Amino acid sequence: MRTAVFFSNPFGFGPTGKMIAVLEEFKKYWNGQIIYASSGLCTEIMHMSDIIQKDVDQRDELSVERVLRAYDKPVVISSLNRFAIAAAHKLKIPSAFIDGLAWLWDPIPEAFLRADMYICTQFPGLETKIKPYRNAYIVPFILSPLPNKSTKAGSVLIHFGGGENPLQSEISQEYYALIGKALQKITWQGNITVAGGTGCIRIIAEHAHRDDIMFKTFTKDLFLQKLAEAGHFITTSGINATMEAFAIGVPTSFMLPSNLSQWKLLSHLIAFGAADSCLQWETYFPEYHIKVGISEKENIEDIHVLAQRMYKDQTIGQRFIEDVSKLVSQVPVTPWQQAFAEMLGTNGAEKTVAILRKNWNF
Q1: Which domain of life is it from (predicted)?
Q2: To which CATH superfamily is domain 3-143+347-360 assigned?
Q3: Res 187: pLDDT
Q4: Phi-psi category of 56—alpha, beta or left, where left has phi over 0 and alpha has psi -120 to 50?
Q5: Cβ-Cβ contacts under 8 Å for 169 (sequence gap 6 or more)
Q6: Which of 16, 118, 181, 248 could hold 8 in an S-S bridge, CB 3.0 to 4.6 Å?
Q7: What is d(CA 233, CA 67) in angstroms, rounded to the nearest whole number?
């Protein structure tokens, strides 16, 4: 029996969200068994009970190798997990690498290009970047099937992605404590739900002291349903959650970014006219500028320092709390959000699986 082994990268919800979307489409055609090798956050949001789950340290190549050696002639599908591709390359296993952040890299990491198929999602300027690589494909943005918009009056969904990732040893306590303090002060007559990873949600809830607000980590399918019901979506600018909201048509505002890709995506969205309602670190710390060539890890460390400064400075902290309250109460009206989703496309899962089927003959 043929075996397909899926891996994700435990960096927020984005890589796993794309993996789930591709897996949902993939299983319609694959006649063999499907393995989802995961742990932690990557397992937390999975909702498909018919998929075999194997515990693995996704960022340890030897751990990945042990999983792959258990199967006869498997294939590997990796969503932004370079360790899975390294192991597959070493064991001469056919592989595909799905990259939703190809637009961010300069240059594209060599480790990603070791895959037999390098599949990246559409973004302005990407065609020029991938032109030298024969194994590269561009597909529309990868999303799971989206529910129809079913707005519940006064419903606000606040979402935090990217806070739990392998580049930091612990969650930024100050960042999420500030969010909790801001939520403590909010006066809103409707329903507020706060979603994110379990660690982030715990810190926010501990500082918010609000029994009337729901704090929850959702599986992917339930999160999308909650999103479709929202009259206002407020999120860190991770590309997956942003595209899901834009495609459904939920008015979206943006919290302070928590990593480099969120920071840079927010800049793109502002320039496009799709982020009129947003908070930016530069507003509170105008002297801070992203250095040319800064790494994800360095930027996360910088954000942690900025959050500590904001937490300790009562004037800046109070200003932030007031700005969060305004963000919740003012629902943005912009046609450019759906226009952005239409520009990138939303049927990338189908296109990705079509590429896999053509190359692997299934």
Answers
A1: Bacteria
A2: NAD(P)-binding Rossmann-like Domain (3.40.50.720)
A3: 86
A4: beta
A5: none
A6: 16
A7: 39
The maximal CA–CA distance of the chain, rounded, in angstroms, is 63
CATH architecture assigned to 155-342: 3-Layer(aba) Sandwich (3.40)
For residue 41, what pLDDT is reported? Answer: 63
CB-hemisphere CA count at 13 Å for 57?
7
One fold for 3-143+347-360 and 155-342: yes
Q: How many CB atoms lie within 10 A of CB 352?
A: 25
Residue-range domain boundaries for the chain: 3-143+347-360, 155-342
Average pLDDT of span 265-283: 97
Tell me the CA distances in angstroms from 295 to 60, 167, 176, 290, 335, one per residue in order: 21, 10, 22, 10, 33
Q: What share of the chain in percent tops pLDDT 70? A: 95
Q: Please give, one letter per residue, the 3-state secondary structure of 291-309.
A: CCCCCHHHHHHHHHHHHHH
Does this model's pTM top 0.90?
yes
Query: With 90 as the cut, is the pLDDT of residue 122 above it?
Result: yes
Assigned token pair, 199: 């660690």
Instruction: Give me the chain's average pLDDT, please.
Output: 92
Tokens standing for 117?
Answer: 């198929």
* Distance, CA of 183 to CA of 327 (rounded, Å): 11
Q: How far apart are CA 213 and CA 217, in angstroms?
A: 13
Residue 24 is encoded by which pair of tokens? 């949902």
Indicate the SS3 state at residue 26. Answer: helix
Given a cut of 70, whether residue 42 has pLDDT beyond it is: no
Residue carrying the six token digits 């942003």: 242
CB atoms within 10 A of CB 143: 23
Q: 246: how many CB neighbours lie within 10 A of its CB? A: 26
Task: Specify burial of residue 191 (Cβ count, 10 A radius: 0-12, 13-18, 19+).
Answer: middle
Residue 55 phi/psi, 5-degree rounding, is -70, 135
